[in-house]
Amino acid sequence: MTPDYELAATAALRTLLFHNITSAPVVPLPIVKSTPGVLAMPFSDLANNAGIERNKLVPMFSENQDAVTFFVNFEKVKYVVAYNQYLPFDSIRRGLARELGHIVLGHDGTRPADVRLDEAMCFARHLIFPRPLIHAIQNAGFPLTVEVLGSITGCYERCLAGLQKTPAVHVPPELNRALKERFSDFIHNFIDFQSMIAHGDNTAVADFGSFMDGYKE
């Protein structure tokens, strides 16, 4: 079974529009908490509710020690999302964006785990790193170095390494245009600010792999 990357990318951009996200970095936790049928809590609360010591609970999640989702489908709660509040902010953000992808894409365990993970990671990268935002800044002529990208999106080396693994996808051009319009004030303010300051950024120009390929508006 092949992951549906286009579905994942489109769902991420529609999520940004639905929640009226107008600036970056994008913070997934408020989106998770406002999603119907989702109960979100830190690992410490999950441990207390389960009657397990936190230091014994967290290792149970193996690679998902930043965040994890349980499909429970119990009364008004369909998903429980737990996150590691003691990790650095960027790690929590990436983990929550991935788990939000599982939820928005309706993953319920009936499809292969690797397919679900690939789709959720694609969703997360498009949510945290919206291509319409980056495209607008590219068109303004600013060198997109690692430091500049980090200041805009919170996406630094590890995040960029993930982008390089994400296949290029096409999404509806009208969706790109709508999201760029939603971010327009943020984009203009960023460009104005960058135009006024001295450029002393010596970090390398960011390599997106094929992530920006196929962008249309």
Provide a descriptive summary of the structure in words.
The protein has 217 residues and is mostly helical. The chain has one domain. It contains 11 helices and 3 strands. The chain has helices spanning 5-18, 28-34, 43-50, 54-57, 89-104, 113-128, 131-139, 146-153, 157-163, 173-182, 184-196; strands at 38-42, 67-74, 77-83. A 3-stranded mixed β-sheet has the order 1-3-2. It is globular and about 55 Å long. The two termini are 30 Å apart.
Sum up the structure in keywords.
3 strands, 217 residues, mainly alpha, three-stranded mixed sheet
Helices and strands in order, then pairings?
Blueprint: H1 5-18, H2 28-34, E1 38-42, H3 43-50, H4 54-57, E2 67-74, E3 77-83, H5 89-104, H6 113-128, H7 131-139, H8 146-153, H9 157-163, H10 173-182, H11 184-196
Parallel strand pairs: 1-3
Antiparallel strand pairs: 2-3
Helix pairs in contact: 1-6, 1-10, 2-5, 5-6, 7-10
**Beta strands, count:** 3
Uncertain runs: none
Radius of gyration: 18 Å
Q: Given the structure, what is the number of helices?
A: 11
Q: What is the helix/strand order?
A: HHEHHEEHHHHHHH
Spatially, the strands of the biggest sheet line up as 1-3-2
Spatial gap, N to C terminus: 30 Å
Q: Structurally, how many domains make up the residues?
A: 1
Strand content: 5-15%
User: Given the helix and strand composition, which structural class is it?
Assistant: mainly alpha
Q: Residue share in helices?
A: 40-55%
Please tell me what the overall shape is: globular
Largest sheet, strands/sense/barrel: 3 strands, mixed
